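User: Could you walk me through two proteins back to back? I'd like the raw sequence and the structure tokens for each, with a short line separating them so I can tell where one ends and the next begins.

Assistant: Of course. Protein one, sequence then structure:
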Amino acid sequence: MMHIDTGNTGFMLLCTSLVMLMTPGLAFFYGGLVGRKSVLTIMMQSFVSMGWTTVLWFAFGYSLCFSGDVGGVIGNLDMAFLKGVDLMSPSPANDSIPLIVFIAYQMMFAIITPALITGAFAGRVTFKAYMWFLTGWLVLVYFPFVHMIWGGGFLQKMGVLDFAGGIVVHNIAGMAALASVIFVGRRKVAESGPHSIPLVALGTGLLWFGWYGFNAGSEFRVDSVTAIAFLNTDIAASFAAMVWLVLDLFYVKKPKFVGLLTGAVAGLATITPAAGYVSPTTAVIIGCISGLVCYGAVALKNKLKLDDALDVWGVHGVGGMLGIILLGVFASLSFNPAGQNGLIGGNSKFFFNQIFAVVFSSIWAFGLTYGMLWLINKVTPVRVSESDEAVLDESLHGEIAYTELG
């Protein structure tokens, strides 16, 4: 008979709600960053993931991630349609919380991860192609990596650590974003920059708030590691935001609000894999490095004229990758006995495992995303026409975000 710990279970339900809130937060964040004509299109791409990803998760997604093991890469279909799940089934992460809570929590991660990618091809992808993309990407990229790192797959067996999704969420989404930008190409109709910075700020606030559920919840119980993950999340976000602000002051000569907000999100993405494995002092270092490196990545993207509209690769891809590598350097058993010591603690094997995981996941996510878009394009056009792009929300959805006054 499973003994339910009401404190842990209540906490995990709260964290699940917080992570759910991140997807609408992302919709506001992205919605504010695009022009007026494509606000609804990008926001709908986030919201539709809440619906469709849930359908797939219930049907077979959870099972492919966490049931059985096929070749160390993917699960099986034994728990498709949540077969065999009842009130007494314990969670694999912590047997004092019910499996149904674990299923719901992991589902929220599955919802936001493909939604992150949409910022890269904002304003130029058809809805039908996006639905194919969302489905294919979850099956070919997201579900395998959840299994490989969290579901008993070969990377987990190798000893790769990823506390809350540096690879499983951010790196694979960022590399998919890069592949999408290269495949889809630049926007034909010029955008005049963010149409609503207050919306971006609202989205950032919701993301930052939700991220506590994302990172602290990944301990799956309430203990000191939960608290350290919570504190580290805030520290890294704050330091990265300030570093980004200083860099804007230095290079653009003005303290940019969008820069501050983008820096915070970069810090959040970078601390994600390390949040529950490092000290608060390390979180300061990770936040500062994140601000510097992600700022540089965005500058590089601009120099190469890659149209990653909302900097998904520079913020999430580079942030996630950086976090996994820095975890390999700074991980400390004194802050999580269930973790590892990193390179500084004399564990070079763990460091090289983390490097391998970054390289392997980057190649997989990039290659499969590019190939999948090529295939989808054979079935239905991925890009909207130039005339549709000029009035995107109206042409795709028959709705507009703002009616003109008068």
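----
Protein two, same layout:
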Amino acid sequence: MAEVKEKMVKIRLPLTKYEKDDVFVRVNQRTWLIKRGVEVEVPECVVEVLNHAEEQKLAGIEFQEKAQKKTD
């Protein structure tokens, strides 16, 4: 049985004043530790996980802002 080759994608996670740590990603039983500021090649599934994490972070910020406005 032939192994299915995953599509790989080049990414570079931004290195900022507030975000300097490497980023750990786990998909099923596989793990990656992605260094910020360096272009790396990862499977598409890793990009999908990172995109979902960013969406959740933004949703959390929006929720906090709405909650803060209600208390003001």
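The beta strands are 8-11, 23-27, 30-34, 40-43.

Let me know if you want the two compared in more detail.
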